Glucose-1-phosphate adenylyltransferase (Photobacterium aquae), 405 residues
Amino acid sequence: MDDVITVILAGGVGSRLAPLTKERAKPAVPFGGKYRIIDFTLTNCLHSGLRRVLVLTQYKSHSLQKHLRDGWSVFNPELGEYITAVPAQMRTGDCWYQGTADAIYQNLYLLNRSGAKYVVVLSGDHIYRMDYVPMLEQHIETGAQLTVACMEVNKSEASSFGVMAVNSAQQILSFEEKPQNPEPLPDNPDKCLASMGIYIFSMETLETELEKDALSKTSCHDFGQDIIPRLIDGKRVYAYAFGSEAGRVSQDAYWRDVGTLDSYYQANMDLLSLQSPMDLYQSNWNIRTYEPQLPPARTVSSPAGNEGIFINSIVSSGVIIEGGTAQNSILFPKVKINNNAVVLNSILFEGVTVGEGAILQNCIVDKNVNIPPGTIIGKDPQQDKRYFSLSSQGVVVVADGDKFA
């Protein structure tokens, strides 16, 4: 892997995840009871042997940079290994990052200094497990200038992705970003082949194309909209089928873009399924994160004699359920659920306190929020939207600073 450098794009605004991104970058949003979203991409790098990683940050990056420092200072700089946060620095002009391609263009000097022959470009805001080595091996074996990881999606969902067509050798023949009428697979009219935003470039190709793109007055400076479509004609651009890798990671082939409140909520709830579609428990592919030293979670009888109960829930360290109930929910560290409080189908971030007799249903509650005793949230949308944010599918988000009725 000495010939490889990895770039993780982690500078997006994340406006569709607001208010969870009010004070943090999207890759730093908590997920699954103990992780941050970016932990999944970084874990894939760790297990794939990618030891030179640049994380390009921009908006509200303090929480993300702190997490990288506390949880991901795992590589040895003396061996040329690193995970380095690279903030936007206006190195090529007076603009911040103008798009995914421009973000890397503004840091080409770092890639050139690395001496790498291949560049792995990843997103910091997707939930999945993947061994990147087989994809890199395919890239080298085919002599590709660009390899794009892809997966089949329903045609009804394909307009949210870059959609491609390939030949029998998996060479990409066409690519269209977020098409209104996506081209289906030849053998299945209900499916399309979609880009996952995972790319491997040969260094020379990447440098040439980014320099061309920087000079264009009409470009959006985006890989999906500009770079990939231009590369297809006359270039060696191939697709790599996600989930086909014969490697160490189990083949759950789960991948989610958690860019909206509803997709984020559903991806968390997926972990509570009877048979979770993503295996978090594969012992040789553990998802790494920063985890503070906390006491074990416990249930406690309240002074009123009620037992603390949790059913089908993820319960993290430091959680106390004192005479309350949590069902089908995800509780981050140091959550406390008090007597007669009920939490259903909800995600409570670190340090949330649920007051006595409160009821939460279909909620996401941000860090350190105190829910007053007797509060009812998630049962009356008309009442909820007066005080809180509601997703298009009715998930209630309670943010720090929100007022209660």
About this structure: The CA atoms of residues 146 and 201 lie 5 Å apart. The longest strand covers residues 191-202.
